[in-house]
Each structure stands twice: as C-alpha cells, then as structure tokens.
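--- STAGE predict ---
source: upstream dedup step, 1 unique chain passed
mode: sequence only
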Amino acid sequence: MQPKREAPSLGDLFSDLSRQMTTLVRQEITLARTEMTHKATRVGKDIGFLAVGGAVAYAGLLAIIAAVIFLLVEVLHLPSWVSALIVGLVVAIIGYVLVRRGLDALTREDLTPAQTIDTIKENAEWAKEQTR
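--- STAGE serialize ---
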C-alpha cells in the first residue's frame, strides 16, 4: 500500500504559480523578441529595395531631363546652355512647388495626441471620483 501524498500547502501552490508565471512571461518575451527580429530583417531588406529602386528611378529622371534638353536643342535650335537653363529652371520650379506644398501641409498638421490627452483627463477625473 502506498502512503498517502500530502496535498501541497497554499504557500507551495502560490510559489509554484509564481515560478510558472515567470517562466511564461520570459518565454513570451523571447518569442516576441524573435518575431520582431525576423520582421525587422524583412523590413530592412524591403527598405534596401526601396533605396535601390529610388536611385534607379532618379537616374531615369536625369536621363529624361537630358533628353528634353537635347530635344530643345534639336527642335528649337537653341544653344545647349540655354536649353539646359530652361529645363533646369522648370525642374527647379516644380521642385519648389512640391516642397512648399509639403511644408504647408506639415505646418497645418496638428501633431498633438488629442485623443490620448482626453483619455488621460477622463482617467484622472475618474480616479478623483473614486477617492471621494
């Protein structure tokens, strides 16, 4: 006949629960770290593709600008420096308009986290009510 096993005490149960919760939290943190590392690696690779694609597109734009300069030389019989000056001014004006538009949009944008501030105020008010 086997001796009866004693039931664990309440302190032993809480101690065991605490150890298991600590292990679980550590495992979850390790999983999250592994997942984020994997995602960051993929995002880094994608950013690399974006950078190379942007550089190639920029080179294409420069080639198109050169072609327009040559077209003005051939069609309008302008000196090459005048054609380059005209195209350069047009491109600079377009760039200025785009930068201006972006800056104006940024200055109009309210970056204050209004919803978060409202929620914090509501929580503070609720806490005051609970302490009364």
